[in-house]
Design goal:
Blueprint: H1 4-17, H2 23-41, H3 46-52, H4 57-85, H5 87-107, H6 113-140, H7 146-173, H8 179-202, H9 216-223, H10 227-246, H11 248-255, H12 259-276, H13 278-281, H14 286-307, H15 311-339, H16 345-374, H17 376-409
Helix pairs in contact: 2-6, 2-7, 2-8, 3-4, 4-5, 4-6, 4-16, 5-6, 5-8, 6-7, 7-8, 7-12, 9-16, 10-15, 10-16, 10-17, 12-15, 14-15, 14-17, 15-16, 16-17
Amino acid sequence: MVNSWHKSNDQVLLMHATSPVGAKTFALFCLASFLLSLSYGSTFLLSLLIHSRGGNEHDAGSVIATAMLSTFVAVLLSGHLADALGAARAIASAGVLLVLACLGFALAPGFGQGLMLFGLSLGLGWGVFYTLGPIIVTLLVEPCQRARYFALLSGSMLSGIGSGPLLGRAAIALDLPLTTAFYIAGLASLAGVVMFWRMGALLKGHANVPASRISWFASRRVLSSKAAFAILMVGLGGCVFGGLSSFQTSYAAAHGLDYSLFFAGFLTAAITSRLLIAGFVVKRDAYQAACVLSGIMLGAIALFAFGVSGNLSYLLAAAILGVGYGLTYSVINGLVANEAPSGTTPQALLLFSMAYFVGVFGFPWLAGKIIVDYGLWAMMLSVLFIAALNWAIATVRLIARSVWAHKTDTGLLIPFVDIKARSPNEGGPIEGKDINHMETPS
């Protein structure tokens, strides 16, 4: 809960920080984002739904993985859609696909290729929304306040994502079919579509912020720079989040727990940390922050693997994961912007988003296969290994920088530095980067 002082403070910020479109429009934007995000959150119920139809975790993972392919297409086409329709109406058009996906999951019989088709629909819709959503922020908010409002957008999306599985839990508690949650998510997404379409008329007089387009040359430059490490880390983090969230219903059932505790704990901790702590964290040294936070995330996975023995420890593990994952994402998002070669920051952020999609949509396919072939325990060990690899990358980078700095300070090494290509905040606090890089929320 946010106290009244914070509410009044946010209202003052909205009145003074936004463009002439106004605070009301930004509030509607956040509400519409929440409603659309319910569609993605509902996918965490797919494992439970497919089990009820005679399928298994591998079948669920295959459906989710199809979304990975279509998100790539969505990311590449989102700029053209924004140019043709405007960012808001491009999101509204893609949102129709999210509605279709939710209804398809509920209505399609069985668990085969029909569901995969709706997985593709989900990926297209979510990819466009995820890519263009931050552009709306740049249209509504003055540059000096964008960091705050990117956090509000991120919080709105996380709220919707986390609420999707809770709809399923509520439906079961009320003795309603699980498909009720998908119907509600579809109706909510439809309301979000209408709101974004109407928002397009409100933003008609505003110049569109050009959406980034990626090229092979820019991709090679980014992936051969230090930014590649942050891109790899977000992909690994996406594997952790996607693997745990997509099969949390299976984990909870195996341990005799209520899966809603995971989503409630994760959601509350992730949103609270992003809104209240992220502003402090991004002022710290980015390498140190990434090392500590990825270590916290690793500790949470270890707790899931070895330490969960009841509802309290289950809730605690979820909350720790929410803090570690939520803040790590913000830090490495800043790192990829800071460490990208000069002139390639927009392309680096697109690659960052695509790596995230590979992890969050692609890994569930492998995780589901591991569960079916080797058991849930093997899947948890694989997630633990990925989290350990993520932490190791952050730790090695921090140590390597310290060794480099020591050799430079003692005169043992005179580094060649291309001053023009060097990022302004490389290895230091990330807050100084121009917020126009549009942090991608997750």
